[in-house]
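Figure 6 in text form: structure in, sequence out.
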């Protein structure tokens, strides 16, 4: 059976070859709407029905924005990196964001970096299926400029034959679990270094992104204890070259006396290498605060 999107592409005949400019344009339009109309209308317009956002756990995105009052603040962002699958059905962007309590307010501006995963729906529109970010101090230097995946040229070759999407999702979940086991055995930095793409991006609260496999040791060098995770969900492109997982991390201190384990939410974006192995292209973790302790009776 040919997946719906693949069938649409075949029927379209002269459909343009997928490239990151598609999701770059969508991301910029999303940000412009946030600036012009506010965050709530923009997110409700661009989030897919099954989208998740992180608060800090994964929650249904549209329900969260529908249930919460509109914020008067101004949130804007700009993609600094974008990639898209060979089939053009799945892509992602990341870049800096800024938040002001009110438009034009330059006092107390907040800064950070976001990650957005985009998926093409049956009607051809691009919608956000995953959105989260981290906060950090104002960057000391601007981004290097907009970059795109090195696989952009390969995308023009077409998506290739249809795949068994469910089977590939299970394969990706298995890769994520295996990476967790490696992290428990040899440490998070060593495990990620062995499973990372050359262009990996690592996002953690309080720090600007680390880029490249050579930055892994410095980015994760402060992890003290055993870091493992359990994936909750995953999805892949119909071309089988791009996917993502998300779930919950658990950081257990090296010594029992150091206190309880700490949890976080993670999103990991994966690309399939030339050898067929899944490699991590982006890794982002945000902490989940400990529940407030009830006073003793």
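Output sequence:
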């Amino acid at each position: 059976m040919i997946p719906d999107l693949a069938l649409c592409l075949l029927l379209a005949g002269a459909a343009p070859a997928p490239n990151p400019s598609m999701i770059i344009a969508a991301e910029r339009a999303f940000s412009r709407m946030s600036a012009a109309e506010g965050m709530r209308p923009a997110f409700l317009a661009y989030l897919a029905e099954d989208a998740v956002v992180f608060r800090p756990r994964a929650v249904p995105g549209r329900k969260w924005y529908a249930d919460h009052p509109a914020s008067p603040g101004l949130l804007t962002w700009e993609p600094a990196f974008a990639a898209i699958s060979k089939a053009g059905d799945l892509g992602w962007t990341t870049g800096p964001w800024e938040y002001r309590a009110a438009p034009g307010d330059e006092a107390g501006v907040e800064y950070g970096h976001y990650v957005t995963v985009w998926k093409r729906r049956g009607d051809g529109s691009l919608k956000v299926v995953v959105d989260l970010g981290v906060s950090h101090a104002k960057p000391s230097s601007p981004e290097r400029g907009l970059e795109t995946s090195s696989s952009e040229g390969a995308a023009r070759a077409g998506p290739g034959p249809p795949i068994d999407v469910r089977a590939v999702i299970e394969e990706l979940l298995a890769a994520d679990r295996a990476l967790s086991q490696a992290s428990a055995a040899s440490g998070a930095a060593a495990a990620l270094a062995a499973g990372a793409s050359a262009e990996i991006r690592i996002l953690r609260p309080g720090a600007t992104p680390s880029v490249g496999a050579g930055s892994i040791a410095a980015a994760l060098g402060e992890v003290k204890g055993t870091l493992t995770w359990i994936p909750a969900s995953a999805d892949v492109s119909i071309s089988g070259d791009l996917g993502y997982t998300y779930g919950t991390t658990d950081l257990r201190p090296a010594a029992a006396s150091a206190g309880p384990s700490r949890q976080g939410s993670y999103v990991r974006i994966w690309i399939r290498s030339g050898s067929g192995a899944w490699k991590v292209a982006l890794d982002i973790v945000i902490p989940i605060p400990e529940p407030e302790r009830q006073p003793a009776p």
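Caption detail: The CA atoms of residues 108 and 140 lie 16 Å apart.
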